[in-house]
Design a protein that fits this description.
- The complex is a heterodimer of chains A (about 160) and B (about 160).
- Chain A has about 160 residues and is α+β, with helices and mostly antiparallel strands.
- Helix content of chain A is about 30%, strand content about 30%.
- Chain A has five helices and nine strands; from the N terminus they run ααβββαββββαβαβ.
- Chain B has about 160 residues and is mainly alpha-helical.
- In chain B, about 70% of the residues lie in helices and about 0% in strands.
- Classes of the chains: A alpha+beta (about 160), B mainly alpha (about 160).
- At the A-B interface, α4, α5 and β9 of A face α2, β1, α4, α6 and α7 of B.
């Protein structure tokens, strides 16, 4: 019997874990962000299609975008430490990485970081706190509107 | 000759200052170069002859941030302070420019027109991309203790 994921196997035998639940809720948020992009891109003259990889999209058949969740560990959240982590290891490197920051215990996105993947340093995890905040602050946005503006298309027929 | 501890320290201080200066200069160069390349891509896309060729070759739409009407970065050209200020926009727009233009270079008609009308544009775009991939836009600024110190100085504008 195939379970698809180990997480599914645990769930089927009734195992409940806070960690797995948190991961699942982050994954749901990522999927919701992807769905929102797919639905809204046509309004800006573009297209967005899901890719087989986890939460990756192909925008305008040119740009690969990955959506990841930025989270803070429960221990940091308890002590009110403003430290966030997100992973960006991927077999297929995206062009743009969207980091949706999600508060611990919440299912709502606090804000987004829109990062050009090629500019990220080597490694697979980035901790966002202290000085990293200052470095990445310019890439922070409250909504996905700047992404839509960035990926918007202008029809050549409409041009003089 | 005996080298005293004080002499060694002073030599190391001198080397660190030199390395920090070099890193800042490299960062400035990468920043200005990226801004200039994005600007050049805008100018190329504003050329009616080029858009006409794109139309005949089946391209149906242009990236809106790079079309001349939406241009808000013309003044960046040659203005390093502004380029640094708009680093986030410039870097994201560079990703858009790269993903739009790079597939077009494989089209002989488009490549020939670019080489004739805009000589140097194709190598410039490729070189900027390679430079960014190799060095990143924040050379020495995203990893390690020294990198963090460099980033602090760079963003605060303090010269060593």
């Amino acid at each position: 019997m195939h379970f698809g994921k180990l997480r599914n196997a645990y769930r089927w035998i009734g195992f409940k874990s806070e960690v797995l639940g948190r991961r699942e809720s982050i994954m749901n948020v990522r999927k919701a962000v992807c769905q929102e992009i797919i639905e809204r891109m046509p309004q800006f003259g573009g297209t967005a299609k899901p890719l087989p990889e986890n939460c990756q999209l192909r925008i305008n058949d040119q740009l690969t975008v990955a959506v990841v969740g930025g989270r803070t560990s429960p221990a940091y959240a308890r002590h009110n430490h403003n430290q966030w982590r997100f992973g960006y290891r991927s077999h297929r490197k995206p062009d743009i990485l969207i980091v949706a920051r999600i508060d611990c215990g919440s299912t709502r996105v606090r804000d987004y970081f829109l990062l050009p993947f090629i500019f990220l340093p080597g490694g697979s995890w980035l901790t966002v706190s202290g000085i990293n905040y200052r470095r990445l602050d310019r890439f922070r946005m409250d909504s996905l509107a700047p992404l839509y503006d960035l990926c918007a298309r202008k029809s050549l027929q409409a041009m003089p | 000759m005996t080298c005293t501890r004080e002499e060694t320290r002073s030599e190391m201080r001198r080397r660190r200052a030199l390395a920090a200066n070099t890193a800042i200069r490299k960062t400035d160069t990468a920043c200005a170069r990226t801004a200039n390349t994005v600007n050049r891509a805008r100018i190329v896309l504003a050329d009616p002859a080029f858009t006409e060729i794109l139309r005949t070759q089946g391209v149906q739409a242009l990236p809106r941030p790079l079309t001349a009407n939406e241009n808000h970065a013309q003044t960046i050209d040659g203005n390093l302070a502004l380029a640094k200020e708009c680093l986030n926009e410039v870097s994201l727009e560079f990703v858009i420019a790269w993903t739009f233009f790079y597939p077009l270079f494989g089209n002989p008609v488009i490549a020939a027109h670019l080489n004739n009308a805009w000589p140097g544009f194709i190598p410039e775009l490729k070189d900027t991309f390679i430079e960014l991939v190799v060095e990143g836009p924040f050379p020495h600024a995203m990893s390690g203790h020294r990198g963090r110190r460099h980033a602090t100085r760079y963003h605060s504008g303090v010269r060593p």
